[in-house]
Amino acid sequence: MNGDRRASVGFTFAGRAVEARAGDTVAMALWRLGERTLRHSSRDGAPRAVFCNMGVCYECLCRVDGAVVRACTTLVQDGMRVEPGGRP
Amino acid sequence: MNGASVVDADVGVVGAGPGGLAAAARLAAGGLSVVVLDEGAGAGGQIFRQLPPGAARPAADHEPPSHASGHALLAAFAASGATLQPLATVWDARPGRLWFEQHGASRLLRCRRIVLATGAHDRCLPFPGWTLPGVLTAGALQVMVRGFAVPPGRRALVAGSGPLLLPTVTALRQAGVQVVAALEASPRRRLWRALPGVLGHAGRRREALWYARQLWRAGVRLQWGCTVFACEGDGRVERAVIGRVDAEGRPRRDTARTIEVDVVGAGFGLVPSIELGLHLGCAARFDAGRGGHCLVVDADQRTTVDGVHAVGEACGIGGAEVAAAEGEAAAAAILRDLRGGPAPAGAAQRAAAERRAADRLLGAFAPLPGLAELATPETIVCRCEDVTLHQARAAAGLHGTSLRAIKVGCRAGMGPCQGRICGPFLQALAGGEPGRPMDLPVVRVPLKPVRTDTLLQAPPG
Ligand SMILES: Cc1cc2nc3c(=O)[nH]c(=O)nc-3n(C[C@H](O)[C@H](O)[C@H](O)COP(=O)(O)OP(=O)(O)OC[C@H]3O[C@@H](n4cnc5c(N)ncnc54)[C@H](O)[C@@H]3O)c2cc1C
Ligand code: FES
Q1: Could you read off the pLDDT of B333-360 as tens digits, one per residue?
Q2: CATH for the B6-121+271-362 domain, from 3.40.50.1820, 3.50.50.60, 3.30.1360.120, 3.40.50.10750
Q3: How many CB pairs under 8 A join A and B?
Q4: Is the link from the previous residue into B446 a cis peptide, with omega within 30 of 0?
Q5: Can you tell me the ipTM of this complex?
Q6: Rounded-to-integer distance, Cα B10 and Cα B113, Å
Q7: Which of B35, B275, B309, B320 is the most exposed place for a label (fewest CB within 10 A)?
């Protein structure tokens, strides 16, 4: 992005190497990349994505290095392994 | 102090929005040690959200006039000596003790007084297709643009009710998004009811004029008495069905039409975030005009629990001016308690005056009951547990109309969000007959899901 002076951060999403900017949350880094779907419904497998973007709804649950976290409240870090989410 | 698992302070403040910042700055200036815990990465709360350091600002970076007071508040806080602990999620508490998770570590703040400034979140209503990727709360789109400079999409629909639709539209415009439609569900005559609350308050008058000018410049017209009926698309939102509602908010299906959009922001007002207060044992009461259940406080912002104060949206939706004034009032009372000295001059009165002015404005946007009819029997009402309206109704029929009965019957509201999203809708479903008090939200520890290690390694307090 133009004028962005932030360090670049590398992480993987569903096994794919992607790049982000330090200070972005996992959810926002993935949104920038056009990745909307962060998990699938346990009932019908329908895709789910960021909904409240402020840590309230838990629609953005992902697995980061094995732990289930909210993608919208978790900052990206170099070397993070992010997997689309299940449930806690 | 930064790394220790146990932190001590005179006052622990939860929430770094205008309410928490105003309280903390005044308390620290008065000579008390203050630690502010916030889940976010920086100070500012919902309204004065800051971009990450070094991030590019959006092309058009205009701020409404109210944000000048935000900068002043942030500067006063920075100069006051109060400490901010960012990325700190409070998950358990009792008077004088706040347990939080920060950078994966389990920590405890011990303090003599607690100030709750936990703010509010969007009031959500279920409608067909609201679980599709690309359909978000109005607040979520603001966070995206103002907190991260991420463009939400290309063509947006904004729908819902209340003053917060305006900053949502301007945030989208700043990010270069075309706002295809901006729909306010309330009938236009509510504008006339809200007008005295706007015109009678200098700050709000300036703010409203600023937003009116922004919308006019962008060529976006707020359409009254209209809302979103449904969202459609294959794996993400591609279309929205919109139309008129009657004065009670009931959809008039004969007016439905379809527009092409790739992002939708829906927000039907705000709901006070009171879970932490409820867990501490603070009394709450239902006030529809203030967004739902609010923490009960006296003129000095004391809750019903000793040593626990509450300020801002947690005491009822009122906006940033109310939050800051109540933060000052709480600080004045705490300073008097802990340091003695003369009674503070006028802080409680100023807070009460701001609150009255806000009530006049927001009372005009009380929730429209008919909007509950947007959901069809197949619509998911509880997103965490994937419960449909049909299932929730069946549970209410079988187990009795109370929030608890619906939860037991179909697990609605039992998921990780603890009913923060589906709560207002389920409360109305359970409430049924008018006049019956709304069921209080049910809270459980951890208040926000944290790592198992955080629970196991919680410092004893
Ligand atoms: C998305 C959004 C956008 C808004 N935009 C505007 C606007 O443009 N103009 C306007 O006038 N009003 C706006 N509002 C209304 C706004 O709530 C108030 O104006 C003002 O921010 C209220 O201040 P506050 O101090 O009560 O709470 P907030 O500013 O909401 O601050 C509460 C803080 O508490 C923190 N918190 C809550 N629970 C916990 C916990 N358990 N652990 C740790 N931290 C916690 C949150 O992270 C948050 O930062 C907006 C509200 C929302 C939700
Ligand atoms: S999007 Fe709601 S918790 Fe992350």
Answers
A1: 999 999 987 766 799 999 999 999 899 8
A2: 3.50.50.60
A3: 116
A4: yes
A5: 0.95
A6: 7
A7: B275
